[in-house]
Specification:
244 residues, Spore Coat Polysaccharide Biosynthesis Protein SpsA, Chain A, 7-stranded mixed beta sheet, alpha/beta, 7 helices
């Protein structure tokens, strides 16, 4: 029997609670999700793509300068926005666990500061069509490091033709970096610890159980974790004419 594929999830969580320390002075007065690429806040680019894919509701978690992010998003009407406020930062895993009551059985998880350009197929729809809820706890979007603009690290994962992933070993260089976008089933978070923790802990458990896979992105992806990466993204997007 062929795997049961899912339609585009109706909900997503956008992780916007972080400090963005690698941005230096840029995030002293402005939260990283509100830093602009091609004249538009990073989080708006993310929400634009969610709305275009058919997602109805986005949960945005807030901690650092959360009121500024909430005020910025108050005028959006193309997608319903709910906020999950964190008095203390809960990291990626804890942030999703706190927001689970606001999310559906299957949902997207995206970093608020991720910036990408779709290839032949919309990446979010590719993730939905590639996700098998019977076998997968999560499906991660992977960017080839050779096509990751502004990224010069050793990569995160190996991905085989069937999408099976393994972590980079110590001192190893691998060809794929996690793009900051995934689709997940809420069972990924079963038995999750309380408080702050990284979602990497749950990915490792899913890898051990054969329930985490990767999907290779065929479009462009920009590493905007530093001022230099941000400037490169702004320049290249402008030159290529991808955005407004």
């Amino acid at each position: 029997m062929p795997p049961r594929r899912v339609s585009v999830p109706e909900s997503a969580i956008v992780l916007a609670a972080g400090r963005g320390k690698r941005m230096g002075a840029l995030t002293e007065q402005t939260p990283k999700p509100l830093i602009r690429v091609e004249g538009r806040a990073l989080i708006d680019h993310v929400l634009d793509r969610l709305a275009a894919a058919g997602v109805k509701r986005a949960v945005v978690n807030l901690h650092y300068m959360g009121d500024a992010i909430a005020a910025h998003l108050a005028s959006r009407r193309d997608i319903e926005i709910e906020f999950s406020r964190e008095p203390e930062a809960l990291e990626t895993g804890g942030g999703v666990v706190k927001a689970l009551p606001l999310l559906d059985e299957i949902f997207y998880v995206l970093n608020a500061d991720v910036f990408w350009v779709d290839g032949a197929t919309m990446a979010l729809r590719q993730l939905a069509s590639g996700f098998d809820p019977a076998c997968d706890d999560a499906l991660l979007l992977m960017q080839p490091t050779a096509r990751a603009a502004g990224y010069d690290g050793p990569g995160d994962f190996m991905v085989d033709p069937a999408g099976i992933v393994r972590r980079r070993r110590e001192a190893e260089i691998v060809p794929f970096v996690f793009a900051g976008i995934e689709i997940a089933h809420r069972r990924l978070f079963d038995g999750a610890p309380a408080g702050a923790f990284s979602i990497n802990r749950l990915w490792d458990r899913a890898i051990d159980n054969g329930r985490l896979r990767g999907l290779v992105h065929d479009g462009e992806w920009y590493h905007v974790g530093t001022p230099q990466g941000l400037a490169l993204a702004d320049t290249r997007v402008h030159l290529n004419g991808h955005e407004r």
